[in-house]
């Protein structure tokens, strides 16, 4: 078990999926959490699950839109006002967007996906890094995707934004390592989250479950990943045990990105 006693971690997209899984893992290891999401009901559900698993956990909730820089500044300042520091930041909020060929991909849709997945990550890093640089320590994990390592058909906005997250992670890791801050990204593959379920439903409608089985049949491990598997990786990367890992993108995809 990694020791998160007295550690303070912000998680965006904490109302479901990978954010919820990471929150559960970190809380059970003693971490104090500030969970950020636009979905207040999702945040409340995450908190209930955390307190059921770790009744002594300290969990604060902030409803915010990561595409609004002022709201990003506010959740960072809230954390400082409440806890006085930020040890870790899981910069995770993201959307998939609609699926379409590049020529048919709506400009507004493209901008929406990039605004959440890339601009939101940038704003979070910008304001958390100011705190961590002054502290002289901290760890950040950004959520990229296998779609940020190689292409993803019919998802121009998603692939472009996640490639951007990869570049931002590597660049900032090089900049801030000297200040005691490690910055890495995870690149999940097919993890069974609400976003992946939604993607399958876009592709296959009522046949999405069959489509999912066919989709993972090409994966070397022949299954979907579990959110908790990603959550445990995030908990490790944000911990003191991973301090010398920096400016790196780590796939968690059952080997899929290396097969092609």
From TrEMBL:
One BP term from GO: bile acid metabolic process
SUPFAM superfamilies: NAD(P)-binding Rossmann-fold domains
GO molecular function terms listed in the Swiss-Prot or TrEMBL record: oxidoreductase activity
Top-level taxon in the UniProt lineage: Bacteria
SMART domains with a match to the protein in the record: PKS_KR (SM00822)
A Pfam family reported for this protein in Swiss-Prot or TrEMBL: adh_short_C2
InterPro entries according to UniProt: KR_dom, NAD(P)-bd_dom_sf, SDR_fam
Keywords: NAD, Oxidoreductase
Record bears the keyword NADP: no
Limits of the Ketoreductase domain: 7-189
Entry keyword annotation includes Protein biosynthesis: no
Matching NCBIfam families: PRK07231.1 (NF005559)
Protein family (similarity comment): Belongs to the short-chain dehydrogenases/reductases (SDR) family.
Designated name of the protein: Levodione reductase
Protein source organism: Planococcus massiliensis
Taxonomic path: Bacteria, Bacillati, Bacillota, Bacilli, Bacillales
